[in-house]
Amino acid sequence: MRKRIDFYCPHCKTKKRITINDEYNESHIDNLLDRSAFKIKCNKCNQETIVDYNFCLKTKSYSLSYGELKDVDRFTLTYDDFKEKVLIFEDKLNDILIELMKKKLNHDLNTEYELRYDGMNDKQLIFYSIDSNESYAMNKELYDYYQNKYKTDNVKDVEITSLNFDKYIK
After folding, report:
1. 3-class SS at 147?
2. pLDDT tens sequence across 84-133
3. Of 1, 24, 44, 108, which one has the greatest count of Cβ atoms within 10 A?
4. Helix/strand/coil (H, E, C) string of 26-95?
5. What does the alpha-carbon distance between residue 85 and residue 65 come to, in Å, rounded to a whole number?
6. Three-state DSSP class for residue 126
7. Are 121 and 68 in contact (CB under 8 A)?
């Protein structure tokens, strides 16, 4: 749904009425990931800026919100978490098991890095460490093993993070 809001340019403080979408579908994923869906150009100073607001992405297979919105599979509170969840769900993976993989990777590395899921190939899941600025690969067979070994609750309207994922694993 489109709605109009007041926007104040952070550069020149000019007030402008803008139209935003608070619901997107799978055709917008690329624009959401590269943030071009949120770029606004000020008519007065010609500066571009990113407008930060709550929204929902609804696809055929999942629903995800940026901001604590209801009636979604998952919500996220940061854009980086939103982006990571999109990558996970687009690769048809379980975000709860991805958090388990990150915990295992940190254990193996003897670290407590902030890790992000960054994609996969046929044999590996790729994780990026914000702390070390490095990428790490984990064998996809481990994910498949976890998928067969553990059941994950079919939860809705929650934020799954490294701090709470384990309460949804059986």
Report:
1. helix
2. 999 999 999 999 999 999 999 999 999 999 999 999 999 999 999 999 99
3. 24
4. HHHHHHHHCCHHHEEECCCCCCEEECCCCEEEECCCCEEEECCCCCCCEEECCHHHHHHHHHHHHCCCCH
5. 10
6. strand
7. no
Residue whose tokens read 């407008």: 51
The secondary structure of residue 164, as a DSSP letter, is T
Residues whose CB falls within 8 Å of the CB of residue 40, separated by 6 or more in sequence, listed in order: 7, 16, 18, 48, 49, 50, 51
- 10 Å Cβ neighbour count for 1? 8
User: Whole-prediction pTM value?
Assistant: 0.91
Amino acid symbol at 127? F
